[in-house]
Amino acid sequence: MKEKLTAAPAAPGRLALALRAATPSIVLVLLILAIWEACVRALEVSAFVVPAPSSILAVLLERQGELMHASLVTGAEILYGFLYSCIVGIVVALLVDRFAWFGRASYPLIVLFQNVPKIALAPLLILWFGYDLLPKVALIVIMAFFPVTLNMLVGLRSADANLVSLLQSIGATPNQVLARVKLPASLPALMAGMKVAITLSVIGAIVGEFVGASAGLGYMIQFASSQMDTALVFAALVQVSVLGVVFYYIIELLELRFLGWAAH
Q: Where do the coiled-coil regions begin and end (predicted)?
């Protein structure tokens, strides 16, 4: 019992380790911001061209209410789009792996479709579905499902061939092999695909808002650009970056919580 208690590190210990690991990144960011601030002041660069970090911070604090409301709108688009991307990506991967004919027929088309510039599809989606949530979610799904499909397929096909052969030799059906061997083996690769998908979901949401929206961080960036408010543009970009990082590390935490065994 004593061994079990001492084996698991305490929460404060894990927090200290996380802070220690993040220290180099924090120091680098602070150094870049300090150099940026010094260059803007020394060279007397106009705030219209490149605002100083202190000016961007002031806008972040002054207009945090507007930025937070826009973040909630964009965050909802990212979340819905990401979840539907995962569902579509997983279903397609399972179908390609389970039915060889489906894989031969659809996989080349999926790869071909990925080469279509997604920004060119955004106006069509706005035309078909209007200016609400649906076109942004559809664009995110188009952009983000492919890494989920590709990584899950890699995981499904990396399952232990000896174990698959053993189950087949004792009469296991393809569905039983999938559920007992292939699906568990695919989970680490699936999580890797989900990490890529969440970053693409952020990009998809912003692109969708650029093309047609009345709210959200992408809309705010476009509006601030039209008003030549460069500090607000940077403030919204900071907010987008923070939103993307939060979503990414939520996936990381879920992976550590449920797939910690895969790291060993």
A: none
Q: Which residues of 59-93 are buried (b: 16+ CB within 10 A; e: fewer)?
A: bbeebeeebeebbebbbebbbbbbebbbebbbebb
Does residue 3 belong to any structural domain of this protein? no
Provide the pLDDT confidence category of residue 4 given band limits of 50, 70 and 90.
Answer: very low
Query: Are 61 and 124 members of one domain?
Result: yes
211-226 tens-digit pLDDT: 877 888 999 999 888 8
Alpha-carbon distance values, 14 to 23, 29, 195, 242, 247 (Å): 14, 23, 22, 22, 20
Give CA–CA dist 246/234, Å, rounded: 18
pLDDT band for position 6 (cuts 50, 70, 90): very low
Range of the domain at 28: 15-45
How many separate domains does the chain show?
2
The two three-digit tokens of residue 42, written as one number: 């020394």
The DSSP letter of residue 213 is -
- Identify the CA nearest to 221 among candidates 81, 85, 59, 80: 59
Are 28 and 142 within one domain? no
Report the b/e string of 38-56 with b at 16+ CB within 10 A: eebeeeeeeeeebbbbebb
- Is residue 264 one of the residues assigned to a domain? no
